[in-house]
Amino acid sequence: MLTGKYKPRTTKEMLGNQKQISDTKNWIKKNKKGGALIITGPPGTGKTLSIQLIAEELGYDLIKLDASDFRKSENIKNLLLSSKQKSLMSKGKIIFIDELDSMDSSGLKAVSALVKESPVPIVMIADDVYSRRLVNIRQKCDIIKFYKIRSDSLAKFLREIAAVENIDISEASLKKIATSANGDVRAALNDLGSNTFGDVSYRDVENKIFETIKIILKTKNPENVKIALKNSDRNLNEIIWWLEENIKNEYEKKEEIAKAYDALSLIDIIQARIIKRQSWSLQSYIPDMITTVALSKEDGYKKFVNYNPPAFFLRYGKRKSKRLDSLLGKMSKELHVSKRTAMSYLYLTSLLMKKKTIEIDEENRRVLAGLAN
Fold first, then answer.
1. For the segment 193-252, what is each residue's pLDDT rounded down to a tens digit?
2. Which of 109, 172, 193, 276 could form a disulfide with 2 if both were Cys (CB 3.0 to 4.6 A apart)?
3. Are 65 and 99 in contact (CB under 8 A)?
4. Are 112 and 147 in contact (CB under 8 A)?
5. Where are the domains of the chain?
6. For residue 86, what are the β-bridge partners?
7. Which 3 state secondary structure label does DSSP give 298?
8. Each residue of 5-30: pLDDT tens digit?
9. What span, in angstroms and rounded, lies between the C-alpha atoms of 212 and 227?
């Protein structure tokens, strides 16, 4: 793939954000004995890669952490002990936490404690650094913002690669890829390499649900699916409902439809185990199963499809939507989360309601019963 072949080997080869990369490197040099930095910005702008390359250039060990590392307090204690030990081979250490804003509340609490105690610099990546969930961590951190790569710079970069790779592409198509990538270098390289010159107008900062479903059901590129999920304005549960409704409208072969619905059935099993066992780490497998839905087809269909909302949306109509919005508002206030996050708790709430574990008024009971059915 072009993304691997043309991956920068040094920070000087990075496209754009050179000042931000220089500021990050200088910050790490000044904070050898501790401190925390959050790097924020749109996807595909080089945030993660720049940290990896900076660590290599400075001769630092990079300790990569994710949400699962913060589920046990012993892991944090062991990390603090190991970070205090001097390395014989490197000049220092960097604790690196990617996708900070995707962590649950317990994970964020553990990160906040780590920021206070760490004897080495901590660098974190967050798409939405000003989320209310990150307020306690943000107050303890410096912030560096990466910006979208300019479309003219991206077009020049793609033009040079097309010449080297002998890719036959018109100037108009090349500019269209550069513009549609919305500053995402990975996305632009994927489109150039997969020859999707005529179907690249789908990347907005926040894809609406119709665009999200269109990308998943039409693309054969796993990277495009990941980008669509990350940029979508809906949570995973709602995206799954839309896929369930529209797979049969997009795919034509029985084998493709069977594989796609089999992937969705595995998601149901994963979600049931998450709720039954409280194994929230299993959530990380759901995007992979959605990618499996996209890869279930032999080839992408070029036909136009009028995607339908989930059937129960239509059953309950606008009146139901207002009630659901009201319910999400109440959940958002009580749980101290956004309405989008509250949406992902609906299924669990409906189960608790059935078991009479929680008290709920009659109007909201009807809304939840409709979703459960």
1. 765 444 444 444 344 677 788 888 988 888 888 888 877 767 788 889 889 989 998 998
2. 193
3. no
4. no
5. 17-145, 151-295, 311-372
6. none
7. coil
8. 888 899 998 988 999 999 999 999 99
9. 9
What residue has token string 């912030």? 143
Strand partners, 126: 40
Does residue 123 sit in helix, strand or coil? strand
Please count the CA atoms within 13 angstroms of the CA of 36 that sit on its side-chain side. 20
**What is the 8-class DSSP label of residue 309?**
P
Q: Measured between alpha carbons, how far is 304 from 31 in angstroms, rounded to an integer?
A: 54
Assign 3-state DSSP to the chain and report helix, strand, coil percentages, each to 5. 60, 10, 30
Rounded distance between C-alpha atoms, residue 69 and residue 76, angstroms: 8
Q: Is 232 helix (H, G, I), strand (E, B) or coil?
A: strand
Kindly report the CA angle at 40 between 33 and 332, in degrees rounded to 5?
A: 110
- Distance, in Å, from the CA atom of 192 to the CA atom of 171, rounded to the nearest integer, reads 12
Q: CB under 8 Å to 135, separation ≥6 — which residues?
A: none
Of the CATH numbers 3.40.50.300, 1.10.287.130, 3.50.50.60, 3.40.50.720, which one belongs to the domain with range 17-145?
3.40.50.300
Determine if the pTM surpasses 0.70. no
Burial class for 333, CB neighbours closer than 10 Å (0-12, 13-18, 19+) = exposed
Cα separation, 106 vs 2, whole angstroms: 38
pLDDT (mean) for 90-95: 82
CB-neighbour burial class of residue 165 (10 A; exposed 0-12, middle 13-18, buried 19+): middle
Q: What is the pLDDT of residues 250-274, one digit of tens each?
A: 998 999 999 999 999 999 898 888 8
